[in-house]
Every structure is written in C-alpha cells, then in structure tokens.
Write a structure and sequence with these properties.
CATH topology of the largest domain: Arc Repressor Mutant, subunit A
Oligomer: single chain
Structural class: mainly alpha
Distance between the termini: 37 Å
Number of domains: 2
Strand content: under 5%
Strand order of the largest sheet: 1-2
Helix content: over 70%
CATH architecture of the largest domain: Orthogonal Bundle
Number of strands: 2
C-alpha cells in the first residue's frame, strides 16, 4: 500500500516520540511537530484506516508492523542524510530541513549507493 509523504512524516514523528517518551497521543504529535490538533486527528484517522497505526481506548498510538517499518526507514534516511549534509558543510538547521525533504523522494537504489559511497570514503 502506498503512503503519502505527509503520512511518512507522521509515522516518523510517532517513531521519534515513542523513543523519547514511550507513550504517544495525538496531542504529543501536535506539540512536537507544531501541527494543528485537527490536522493530526485527521492524519491519525487515515493512518489507522490504512493499518499503519492502532489507537487504544485511551488515545495511545502504536505503530503496526508495517507502520513501524516505514517509520524506521524514513528515520534512518533522515539521520543519514542530515549527518551527510552537515559533514559537507551545510548548517545544522538547513541540513535537517533538507534531509526531511529529500528522505521521502530518494529511491532505495540511490539511498543504498549513497550509503555505500560514504562507507567507502572512510
């Protein structure tokens, strides 16, 4: 099942928040990402319908196996790209912002080759 860039971003935010605080609710995502509560609510509804997350009766959000795999992949890309950009002289803020844009559009082949290139440079 295909997922849109915004869905990937929400899954990544859930992944990061779960690592930081354990339990995640919609309000946590809204505060963390500076999104409106209605936007987060709508996104959570879509992600739940598409089986990327579950939400329990108390509003706690869990990533499904599929959601977790997507979130982990996007987070790994973000971390790698952000580090790479900083190493070539891009400022930290710009590197993070650009990594966030690139991570959703880079093919698996290009990402793999970029990682191999960096590894071979060491």
């Amino acid at each position: 099942m295909a997922i849109q860039e915004s869905g990937e971003m929400y899954l990544e935010n859930i992944y990061v928040l779960k690592q930081k605080k354990g339990n995640v609710r919609s309000i946590d995502i809204a505060n963390y990402a500076n999104f409106s509560k209605p936007s987060v609510s709508r996104a959570m509804s879509i992600l739940k319908k598409d089986a990327f997350i579950t939400i329990d009766k108390d509003g706690y959000i869990e990533l499904t196996e599929t959601g977790y795999e997507i979130a982990k992949k996007i987070y790994e890309r973000h971390q790698f790209l952000s580090t790479f950009l900083k190493k070539i002289g891009v400022s930290e803020d710009t590197a993070s912002q650009d990594a966030c844009k690139i991570e959703h559009y880079l093919s698996e082949e290009t990402f793999t080759k970029l990682k191999e290139f960096v590894e071979n440079m060491k």
